[in-house]
Amino acid sequence: MSDEPIRVLLADDHPVYRDGLAMLLGSIPGIEVAATAANGTEAIGRTADLQPDVVVMDVRMPGLDGIEATRRIVADSPHVGVVVLTMAEEDATLFAAMRAGARGYLLKGANQGEIVRAITAVAHGEAIFGPAVARRVADFFAGTATTSAEPAFPQLTPREREILSLIAAGRANAQIASALFLSPKTVRNNVSNIFAKLHVADRAEAIVRAREAGLGRSRPGPADQG
Fold first, then answer.
1. How many CB atoms sit inside 10 A of residue 83's CB?
2. 6-137 with 150-212: one CATH topology?
3. Are 175 and 60 in contact (CB under 8 A)?
4. Among 53, 55, 56, 199, which one is least packed by beta carbons within 10 Å?
5. Quick check: pTM over 0.85?
6. Annotation: CATH topology of 150-212
7. Which pLDDT tens digit goes with each residue over 58-112?
């Protein structure tokens, strides 16, 4: 790939940001903007047609969101690297993107150099995260390493523990559904299961139990833009 430009597809529903980033990246030697997309469905279709080296993916877009689009792109074209570029700072979105197969995760405050480095690294098969994001990933796995022998609430599924952590952080069901890209009904069902498994009567009691176990201590991130 050293002699050929890195072909990039940009997916973002904000036209001013999308077009501005396309113009910026198009001016960088060694990078070619192959196409842009305004939502996840377009990103999947254009990736299938054009087979870019890297997709730069927003998260919250109308219709199909960036997490599900990433999952489908990686499943269909595993050689295409995905860099998530988003306003979403919360851990739930970060780890959802990683589980979907994204190999990079940057916040939209990243500068030109950080974005170019991420695209270049992912195009060459590496994984890269912005400095603030990388610290949170390291902290998460450091915490997991110290507690992995006896996880909190082993009777809960990983998804239920994730939802309980957000409950303990003060999130309402609608916010949890948005952060985890689940339907409100799915969240309600999981919350009911959590209450039953923990033998708690209500949300307040669940929050007390969760916080005593160390869950929900990270600050809530914005859930209204991507």
1. 25
2. no
3. no
4. 199
5. no
6. Arc Repressor Mutant, subunit A (1.10.10)
7. 998 988 899 999 999 999 999 999 999 988 877 778 888 888 899 999 888 888 8
